[in-house]
Amino acid sequence: MDMVVSNLQQQRAIVQQLRREAAIKRMPVSLAVADIIKYITEHEQDDCLLVGFSSQRVNPFREKTPCSIL
């Protein structure tokens, strides 16, 4: 009997979670993609992958000085 009550509580928790997920406002993928494209075009001048670095010193991925032990 205790197992039945536990199972019923688990099922209720699952139903509550599904109801919460169903209540989430959804956005069509086309609108989400349009928002992403708009953001990218507005911020492309700040994107180092598109425009590069102003100098090699600013580049955090530049090759550090080689090891002098070799």
List keywords for this structure.
70 residues; mainly alpha; 3 helices
Short description, anyone?
The chain has helices at residues 2-22, 29-43, 48-51. By secondary structure, the chain is mainly alpha-helical.
Helix fraction?
Answer: 55-70%
Are there runs of 5+ residues with pLDDT below 50, and where? none
Strand % is under 5%
For the secondary structure, the number of strands is 0
Rg (CA only): 26 Å
Structural class: mainly alpha
How would you characterize the largest beta sheet? none
Shape: elongated
Secondary-structure topology with pairs:
Elements lengths: L1 H21 L6 H15 L4 H4 L19
Question: How would you characterize the overall build of this protein?
Answer:
The protein is built from 3 helices and no strands. Helix content is 57%, strand content 0%. It has helices at 2-22, 29-43, 48-51. The chain starts with a helix and ends in a 19-residue tail after the last helix. It is elongated and about 75 Å long. By secondary structure, the chain is mainly α.
